[in-house]
Amino acid sequence: MLKRVFDLACSIVGLLLLAPIYFLLAILIKLTSTGPVFYRGQRVGRLGRPFRIYKFRSMVTNAEQLGGPSTSDFDPRITTVGRFMRKCKLDELPQLLNVLMGDMSLVGPRPEVQKYVDMYTPEELVLLELRPGITDWASIWNSDEGAVLAISDDPDKAYEELIRPTKLQLQLAYARCHSLWIDIKIISITLLKLVKSDLVPQEILTVLESSNAPDLKALINSASERQEFSSVTELPGHGATAEQLSMLHTRYNLAAELATGKDLLELACGPGVALGHLQKTSRRVVGGDLDPELVKAAQEHYGTRVEVSQLNAQNLPFDDNTFDVILLLEAIYYLPDPRAFVSEAKRVLRSDGTILVCFANCERPDFNRSPFTHTYFSAAKMHQLLTDFGFDVESYGGYPVARRGVRDRLLAPIRWLSVKLRLIPKTMAWKIRLKRLLFGNLKPIPAELDVCESECEPLISLKSNARARDFKVIYAVGRKAA
Fold first, then answer.
1. Does one domain contain both 376 and 288?
2. What is the DSSP letter of 165?
3. What are the pLDDT digits (tens) for 50-82?
4. Which of 118, 190, 336, 444 is packed most tightly, with the most Cβ within 10 A?
């Protein structure tokens, strides 16, 4: 009885205090996507009775018909505002209505869909004797479920194998030992977890030590470390926006101009989409990449037409004075030691050789850092790096940030907020899904790019020490000083 009084008092006070936030979120949901403000999915409650849960709708309408019940951070069904709400746990706030109506409690095992309740063992059926809750020990342990599910191609399987077993153990621990004092402690820790993500109370540690519970944070980190560069590389067949394809044409058009009649080496060439085009005007073309899968893809496409091999840009397997032009396009930030690369490039370039480095501009206001990167350069810092090794440098900016269409202007604030909250997908596959939702049909990246000058953008010359925040891409051309 005391627990129910506590739930009623807290839910009424919470609903009154949070009313302005409810109103604001409701407006944002209605303005940014079609469908109702609330999601009313069916869950199993106390004694197995079904009820409709209240959540702010964070996904497209009919999401349950488009995919499974488990949702990763980068599920394409999630709306733009929904991604923000999920990150801040705001979509859960309306469950105070369920608490007020008696369907739920503030603290208790999280309510499940019928599919997972049907999988309960006789021991686990005791969970149905409790009202499901907004938070519990399992919620604190697994506070970033979307990130865990995002490392798997099958979120439902990942939930069942990585999360559900330990989640049930923690819920059973609460079922065996619960009181109003414990509820207050769980609520307090849940709130502290929002600002101190590494907080793990002893009650959770006890259960984890007695079971084979996975270290979810380690799983996320190790998955990121195992990711090959192919997961962040533009691959043939990937959907691309018109601007993305234009950037490909522009950088390889510039590269072809620099390498006409010369020996060229492209480092971090990936699947080598432009090696065939460069070969048309160059005397010799060699491609190389650190990722064996990307090298294999390029070799299978070109056969004996182009020489492609696995190599490290910081330790090149070539004699001195071998090439006239070296390219490193959209890749220098993946190198642990960029200075070692520039030193090696200078060594293998001939006396009048040229280096072209193209990279995303970290000075732009809505810059988004890519996974697996080390050091990002501004235009001025790249100019200084190449100058330190004796290159005469010319820098250019491409794709002005300010030149936007109506859609870009509308999406700019959302992109900025998504970058600040780290909501941008990490892998190329998830980025493509997001772009498809925002831009509709995308054009595929070709296996072999045929550069067209009409698709290229003009480049703007930059002063050596100038900030370049107005451009999306920077191009640095370094000519080996005599």
1. yes
2. H
3. 999 999 998 877 666 655 565 555 556 777 788
4. 190
Judged by DSSP in three states, 66 sits in helix
- Are 455 and 360 within one domain? yes
Domain count, the chain: 2
What confidence category does residue 382 fall into, taking pLDDT thresholds of 50, 70 and 90?
very high
Token digits for 294?
């990307």
| Mean per-residue pLDDT, 428-438 | 47
Q: Look over the chain and give the mean of its residue pLDDT values, rounded to a whole number.
A: 83
Residue 308's SS3 state is strand
Classify 340 as helix, strand or coil.
helix
Q: Give the CA angle between residues 31, 32, 35 to the nearest 5°.
A: 85
Domain limits at 184? Answer: 2-226
User: How far, in whole angstroms, is CA 335 from its chain's centroid?
Assistant: 20
User: What is the Cβ-side half-sphere exposure of residue 207, based on CA atoms within 13 angstroms?
Assistant: 23
Question: pLDDT tens-digit profile of 197-254?
Answer: 777 888 888 888 777 766 665 555 544 444 444 555 666 777 777 888 999 999 999 9
> 234 and 334, same structural domain?
yes
Q: Are residues 145 and 83 in the same domain?
A: yes
User: Are residues 263 and 168 part of one domain?
Assistant: no
User: In the listed set 196, 226, 256, which residue is the last one of a domain according to the structure?
Assistant: 226
| Residue 416 in this model has a pLDDT that exceeds 70 | no
Radius of gyration of the CA atoms of the chain, in A: 27
Q: Quick one: which of 150, 176, 171, 179 has its CA closest to 162?
A: 150
CA-CA distance, 91 to 77, in Å (whole number)? 15
